[in-house]
């Protein structure tokens, strides 16, 4: 099969289009024909060796965790899916080796959920990691209709889903973004505020008594969080471990399919959107990585085999 691989840590220049054997399908696993795969910052951070102390990489490695595709084969004692089922997954396993930037990927079925019918293949591929990050953070913070929620990084992949989930629960949502993205945040259900100097004052102008929940999806905003959080409020971050020293929760997303399926169902029930910024063919995966590394793209960057 065609696959993108890298044989050593480095920049996107180490990515190559290669021929690899079809993945083996072990007990409790399924083989997925990849329709689309999403680029996430963690992909190029792993490739660059920045997470070497946390995650083992077996070279040559195929990058990519997020995938949307069709079940091609089912392993022994795997009973959740049938050949032809349309599925999605955050395919984070215990080590990096056989990822989603390929024509096929084999994954334990415990990581696989059914694709939301309302999403295109590229949008579905962009849902698992960012969507589950937002979903699990808001679940841990127990967001309900009684809350006023501040989301740091509202225009990003995680933040944009987080806005929609919180709004679907009836919460009031305030979210940060650059001015150019304010209209976009309004379409998602948030009251936008510009990030940067004076952010706490701008949030307080909208919520004089403070906010009851803060979800940080960007990092570097702990001082603002503490300044605007109402007494007894809850806060969590996916980017700043220091929140734990101030009563907050630092969260690393769990790829379990139970949450992913609940999120997929919510997408169909509430009409949640996943914005796709650009798609690349498999052979241009290095360019997709370079675009992601610029950090200015609104929406998901997708690779299609």
UniProtKB/TrEMBL annotation:
First and last residue of the signal peptide: none
Any one Gene Ontology molecular-function term assigned to this protein's record: oxidoreductase activity
Gene3D superfamilies xrefs: Medium-chain alcohol dehydrogenases, catalytic domain, NAD(P)-binding Rossmann-like Domain
Top-rank lineage group of the source organism: Bacteria
Stretches assigned to the Enoyl reductase (ER) domain: 10-303
One Pfam match: ADH_N
Protein name: NADP-dependent oxidoreductase
Organism the protein comes from: Cryobacterium frigoriphilum
């Amino acid at each position: 099969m065609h696959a993108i691989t890298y044989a050593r840590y480095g920049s996107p220049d180490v990515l190559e289009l290669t021929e690899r054997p079809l993945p083996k399908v072990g007990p409790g696993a399924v083989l997925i024909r990849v329709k689309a795969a999403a680029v996430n910052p963690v992909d190029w951070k792993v490739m660059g060796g920045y997470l070497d102390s946390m995650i083992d990489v077996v070279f040559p490695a195929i990058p990519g965790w997020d995938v949307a595709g069709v079940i091609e084969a089912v392993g022994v004692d795997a009973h959740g899916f049938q050949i032809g089922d349309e599925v999605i997954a955050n395919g984070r396993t215990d080590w990096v080796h056989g990822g989603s930037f390929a024509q096929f990927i084999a994954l334990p079925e415990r990581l696989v959920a059914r694709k939301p019918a309302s999403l295109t293949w590229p949008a579905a591929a962009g849902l698992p990691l960012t969507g589950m990050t937002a979903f699990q953070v808001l679940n841990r913070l127990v967001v309900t209709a009684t809350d006023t929620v501040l989301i740091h990084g509202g225009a990003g992949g995680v933040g944009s889903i987080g806005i929609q989930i919180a709004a679907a629960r009836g919460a009031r949502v305030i979210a940060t973004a650059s001015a150019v993205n304010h209209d976009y945040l309004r379409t998602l259900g948030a009251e936008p505020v510009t990030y940067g100097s004076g952010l706490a004052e701008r949030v307080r102008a909208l919520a004089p008594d403070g906010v009851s929940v803060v979800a940080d999806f960007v990092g570097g905003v702990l001082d603002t969080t503490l300044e605007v959080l109402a007494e007894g409020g809850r806060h969590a971050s996916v980017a700043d471990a220091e929140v734990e020293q101030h009563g907050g929760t630092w969260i690393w997303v769990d790829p379990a399919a139970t949450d992913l399926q609940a999120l997929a169902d919510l997408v169909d029930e509430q009409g949640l959107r996943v914005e796709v910024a650009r798609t690349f063919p498999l052979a241009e995966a290095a360019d997709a990585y370079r675009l992601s590394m610029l950090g200015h793209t609104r929406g998901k960057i997708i690779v299609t085999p």
